[in-house]
Design a protein that fits this description.
Length: 291
């Protein structure tokens, strides 16, 4: 066996083994995301508003559903990972989403359909949202805490390091998502005015949680500096971008495209798509060069 083919084996031998609890969590969230995210996105495409809380525009629950739907394939891929380091660039953002959405939901519980009242289906969905989200949030905290207690094993050199030209672009893309997500989450009243469609406080904070998670994911992949350790994230990035693009295109008439935030959003979504697609190409070329 040549030295080149030994490199990935040495790189994969180090790190923490992925625990069964984390793998099962990823699969459970993936299934939930397909069902709930698919429902939210599909209803949004019809122009109707459906979710756990009232919203002034169907784009808001639609984009949340699109993000859930887009990340599901990447979460299914986590079960094929052998080490924690191969999955953490997606699982850390997952923890941000679960803990963030659970916190935002509980802090705004009085705005949910279950508190304000409304159509029976919306009230039942609101109740299920709290229960399932709370269960997954507790599961994520416990599973990731136990995962970090697994002894670490020294690893080898990166099997497929990021090319130098990609790092500044990833840093800008990740910082952009991280920044807007933090703003929407902490000061929704101010930053919601920069969203190029109608939104309310709870919508702004929920969208902020997802934007924050995307920023954490992109910057986490940059910190890994190894494409072989970001396979699930490379699946989730373009999937999320594509799902969001479909919802945005379907509700294009309700977006202020002439505004600066709309142009920025297009660039940021396109950046996710390009990052995922280029990552796959680079990873394929790296694997071919090692064979």
């Amino acid at each position: 066996m040549t030295q080149a083919s030994d490199t990935p084996a040495r790189a994969a031998s180090g790190g923490r083994p992925l625990t069964a609890g984390v793998a099962m969590l990823a699969t459970a969230v993936a299934v939930t995301s397909l069902l709930v995210g698919g429902l939210l996105a599909a209803v949004s495409l019809t122009g109707q508003v459906f979710g756990a809380w009232p919203s002034p525009e169907s784009l808001n629950p639609g984009l949340i559903g699109a993000a859930m739907l887009g990340t599901a394939p990447g979460l299914f891929a986590v079960s094929r990972a052998q080490h924690w380091e191969e999955a953490r660039s997606l699982l850390h953002p997952l923890a941000v989403v679960l803990v963030g959405l659970c916190t935002v939901t509980l802090l705004n519980a009085d705005r949910l359909y279950i508190a304000e009242g409304g159509p029976v289906l919306s009230v039942l969905f609101s109740l299920g949202w709290i229960f399932v989200l709370g269960l997954l949030c507790v599961w994520a905290v416990i599973a990731l805490a136990l995962q970090h207690r697994v002894p670490d094993r020294p690893g080898g050199t990166p099997a497929a390091p990021l090319p130098g030209w990609s790092k500044p672009a990833l840093a800008v893309l990740g910082s952009a998502w991280l920044g807007i997500g933090t703003g929407l989450l902490i000061r929704p009243g101010f930053w919601a005015d920069f969203v190029p469609w109608h939104t309310n406080r709870l919508d702004a904070q929920a969208l902020g949680v997802w934007a924050l998670a995307l920023g954490v994911g992109v910057l986490g992949a940059l910190a890994e500096d190894d494409l072989t350790r970001t396979r699930p994230a490379l699946i989730a990035l373009p999937g999320t971008a594509a799902a969001m693009a479909v919802v945005l295109a379907a509700r294009a008439a309700h977006i202020e495209w002439s505004s600066g935030p709309a142009l920025s959003l297009v660039c940021m979504v396109a950046g996710l798509l390009c990052a995922g697609a280029s990552g796959h190409v680079l990873l394929t070329r790296s694997a071919a060069s090692r064979s």
